[in-house]
UniProtKB/TrEMBL annotation:
Coiled-coil ranges from the UniProt annotation: none
Keywords: Coenzyme A biosynthesis, NADP, Oxidoreductase
Function of the protein: Catalyzes the NAD(P)H-dependent reduction of ketopantoate into pantoic acid. Catalyzes the NADPH-dependent reduction of ketopantoate into pantoic acid.
UniProt-listed GO biological process terms: coenzyme A biosynthetic process; pantothenate biosynthetic process
The protein's annotated pathway: Cofactor biosynthesis; coenzyme A biosynthesis
Residue ranges of every copy of the Ketopantoate reductase C-terminal domain listed in the record: 184-306
Enzyme class at the top of the EC tree: oxidoreductase
GO CC term, one of those recorded: cytoplasm
Oxidoreductase listed as a keyword: yes
Catalytic activity: (R)-pantoate + NAD(+) = 2-dehydropantoate + NADH + H(+); (R)-pantoate + NADP(+) = 2-dehydropantoate + NADPH + H(+)
Protein name in UniProt: 2-dehydropantoate 2-reductase
Taxonomic classification: Archaea, Methanobacteriati, Methanobacteriota, Stenosarchaea group, Halobacteria
Amino acid sequence: MEIAVYGAGGVGAYYGGRLAEQGHDVTLIARGEHLDALRSDGLTVESVAGDFAVDLPATDDPTAVGEVDLVLFCVKSFDTADAAAALDAMLRPDSAVLSLQNGVDNEDVLADVVGTERVWGGVTYIFSTIKEPGVVEHTGGPAEIVFAEYHDIDDPAPERSALADALLGACEAATGMSADYTEDVHATLWDKFALICAQAGLTATTRHPFGDIRATEETWALYRRVMEEVVAIAHAEGVRFGWDPVTKWLDAMESMDNEENYSSLHYDLTHGKRMELDALHGSAVRHAREHGVDAPAVETIDAILRPQADANES
């Protein structure tokens, strides 16, 4: 497969590198010192699934990549609209753009630019960050991608394409990662959205790692409340789950042994970087108000973090 990783940070570069190990033609799109290191020294990955290094073409100009089968779209959510404007140069009529971003609004933004038929919605479960320019550190998580071809929520899901089958096969053949196809892309997106609003929101507002949140009764109750509110908003949107997301995630997080885990929102907040608050709690608040759903916990987290988010943008 010909693959471009748009936003080759901790997540995108990890998956791009793993697919390149299997012989796929991967180009990384990055910027700054990270791009400089990728160009001069290649990509190094320090992974719990095995370290590796690959020398891949890297650029900051998407229009220089050429046409590809698939774009792994991993830019920060606040860059979605600007980055989407450069996608056409990489896409054939049968190419696809797979969003592995935070939030539930990115796919609609992409669809407005390149057409719904070329957008795939996806989530991933992985702990992977840029340790230093050119070096990605993968510390845990199942490293799984769950995706499907996107569609309007009121329309039937399209049939799975040959390209989707090709990606599934590529991921399953690769070391240190896996993939699955979801039969309900909207439920899958909102399911993870519920978790990330709780995890990101509580680690950022408390400035404490997950283990402290779980060990504190009042804070753990708030963690649950955030998920309950996001699920209620999803229901108002017309999303129907074949499972209980709140119970699913509470059971999973009760047994998680990485007690020192924070979130990318916490990292950005504490390092003066632009935060994805608007794509997370800000988005949840907007959807809640649109449908008249009470979401006091989510609104409170958004209000607490908003001043620092605004300051980090200035």
